[in-house]
């Protein structure tokens, strides 16, 4: 797969994914409120254009460089994730036989990008959001590691291309029923959403993005949506058989499955409240991590 | 008229609004959450909506808030009287609000109406004269107020004995997750509250106490369920399933008041539409110290407007609440001064 063809195709898909993510978020939000969906498909675009036309605000003595770069880091990590996803047998932009490991590394660096975004404005709410996110981020990354290793066991490989091929008989979502629900929690944490949004939450008036105005706001929200697309594509690949499916071309199957995961994540975002930090830490360490061990055990026994 | 395609496209969407709520504006704000695009931070808003009467002592805070909005920006006064020296104020009637908003949004995007200038000088409250490549300071690492900026200093931790940095700052009066008008002086260690005093109590909100649906909605919004918060079933409350989820996410025993009720009990009373509880002499110092920020916001939103006003009114800096454990020193529900003697600070939170 040549980079010259692949990269523009990937960015085009990402652009469509971004728009789908924003439209889904708006439409599902309105459906839950009980309002007409209306212009949910174009309203996010109007908001983006409006914010680009507006002033980029600053705070007193911010970390200018990192404030500018944090959305870039976040976006780049999403692009790396998407580039690891195979869209046809043996076809992915980054052909790496340890792609699960690289994705795990990208997840971990998301914590750094979000922290820098909260650190840079030199203001209390963004900083509290940043530290809180790091506290929750560590155990969430452990969760991700266990469920992705479990998903790799049937393939006997840490290559996402092999992980998809190993699901030809049976998708991982059935073989390891605990994996996908746990990974949805990871997706919400990576994308700062709903019950796992400890960085950009309402109780902090927007947390790490509380000081983002105009283009800064749009840049961060775009990166956040890009990470949603990437993480959902990884979920579709690791648990829902990626490009596998009859009749339709592989990339279309992958897109449809990614969209389905996205709908699930957006619904959870809107319907599940966020617990206080201490309760969430207890839930992750005492309940979710043991369930992740169980998931690993099921995968291991299945492989024997 | 010479609006570019991009500007016209942007102007056809709903304007981003930040609501600064004053006396009597809370109930209207709940209604407007359903129809307007209300933002969580003034940085993401183009129009400042002043909702309810702003007491004179809050005007300097309103001006500072105003300057937080990026250009182009404008202000709309709704159920509020602009002060005499506010240049060219836009006022909106009850049914003309949405129309006024969209017109104003179009005219500031097209440039027909000039963006409102700053009230305050856009320069640091104290001069940076620090040494080093970033002007980061003088000698030593912690404590004191170098160049007029209070620095965090290590202090005993309430929970685990770790001596982390303590940091004091005022929060409010227009933060969307605090009762409107409340100014809290908090000392924080990380996000754990060490001490809390109310330097100004919340604005009165007549008629808001008998609206349990709105109270549940505010709690839902703090816990990031904004869509469910707007939905109402036939009994005027958010859906029962949502309330049950909300209840489960709230820790048992959180925010116990002097009458023995915790946040869950108060939520149950709203759900069952019981009469508002009588005041029981609770103070902020009974509720907030030792809580994490998120828990503290849940607790503050678990009281009806009149009750949290009474709690804050007796939790002022001169309240001496530590040595007055038997409480009930005064019954201040009617007494909080709107021209309170709060001091002005040079530092505020982002949405202060």
Folded structure, characterized:
Chain A is an all-alpha fold. Chain A has one domain. Chain A is globular, with a radius of gyration of 19 Å. By secondary structure, chain B is an alpha/beta fold. Chain B contains 11 helices and 9 strands. Chain B has a 5-stranded parallel beta sheet, with helices on one face. In chain B, strands 6-7-8-9 form a 4-stranded antiparallel beta sheet, with no helix packed on it. In chain B, a hairpin with an 8-residue loop joins strand 6 and strand 7. The longest helix of chain B is centred in the N-terminal third of the chain and has 14 residues. Chain B is globular and about 60 Å long. Chains A and B meet through helix 1, helix 2, helix 5 and helix 11 of A and helix 1, helix 5, helix 6, helix 7 and helix 10 of B.
Cα distance spanning the termini of chain A: 35 Å
The average pLDDT score of chain A comes to 94
Q: What portion of residues of chain B is helical?
A: 25-40%
Rg of chain B (CA only): 21 Å
CA-based shape of chain A: globular
Question: What's the helix count of chain B?
Answer: 11
Sketch the topology of chain A as an H/E string, one letter per element. HHHHHHHHHHH
Largest interface: A-B, 58 and 59 residues
Strand content of chain B: 5-15%
Main structural class of chain A: mainly alpha
The geometry of chain B reads as globular
Question: Descriptors for this entry?
Answer:
heterodimer; A: 304 residues; mainly alpha; 11 helices; 68% helix; B: 352 residues; 2 domains; five-stranded parallel β-sheet; four-stranded antiparallel β-sheet; 9 strands; 27% helix; globular
Q: In terms of topology, how is this protein built?
A:
The complex is a heterodimer of chains A (304) and B (352).
Chain A: H1 3-33, H2 43-52, H3 64-84, H4 99-119, H5 124-152, H6 160-165, H7 172-175, H8 179-190, H9 215-239, H10 250-271, H11 277-303
Chain B: H1 5-11, E1 16-21, H2 26-33, E2 37-38, E3 47-51, H3 59-68, E4 74-78, E5 90-92, H4 97-110, E6 153-155, E7 164-171, E8 183-189, E9 192-200, H5 212-222, H6 226-230, H7 240-249, H8 263-271, H9 284-287, H10 293-300, H11 305-313
Parallel strand pairs in B: 1-2, 1-3, 3-4, 4-5
Antiparallel strand pairs in B: 6-7, 7-8, 8-9
